[in-house]
Amino acid sequence: MENEIKLRFFFLIGTFIILFSVLSAFLLILIHRNKVFKIKEKESENLLRISLESEKKERQRIASDLHDGISGDLNALQNYITILQNKEKDNYKVCLLKEIETILHDTLENIQSISYNLMPSMLESQGLSPTLQSYFERIKKMESHFNLRKL
Question: Could you give the CA distance from residue 108 to residue 117 in angstroms, rounded to a whole number?
Fold first, then answer.
């Protein structure tokens, strides 16, 4: 009888030890998975941040190239055409130069618009809301400008 009680006691203690070991292992696995998940989440956030920063820098570079490089060249070309227009006596050539000047002017506006849309300077200095308001105002102006031209 006494041996049976001791045997049951050891069996009960052994069961608790095994149960405690299994629960401890399960808890350690959960803690490890949680840490791995947090590490992966931080890595993902860092990759996203780096990607967004790279995209922002590339947009700034392209916008700057458009504004400073191509716009400057087109402005110089527009000035040369104006000089030629002032010197030209033939009406046909004057009209042709005027048409070229109009096309250049529209191209410059398109480049400025593209440059602005790539990297609005207001976004950096004033934030998203004022930038969006300005953007919609520019769209309204363009619509009214094109509607007037059609008339």
Answer: 14
Taking the alpha carbons at both ends of the chain, their separation in whole angstroms is: 112
Nearest-angstrom CA–CA distance, 81 and 102: 10
The residue with tokens 């105002």 is 137
- Give average pLDDT by consecutive 10-residue segment, the chain, 151 residues: 85 94 96 96 93 86 82 87 89 90 89 78 70 78 64 50
Place of tokens 């102006």: 141
- What's the length of the chain? 151
* Backbone phi and psi for residue 100, each to the nearest 5 degrees, phi listed first: -65, -40
How far apart are the C-alpha atoms of 22 and 2, rounded to whole Å?
30
Which amino acid, residue 127? G
Burial degree of 81 (CB within 10 A; 0-12, 13-18, 19+): middle
Q: Identify the H or E element spanning 123.
A: helix 121-125
Prediction pTM value: 0.51
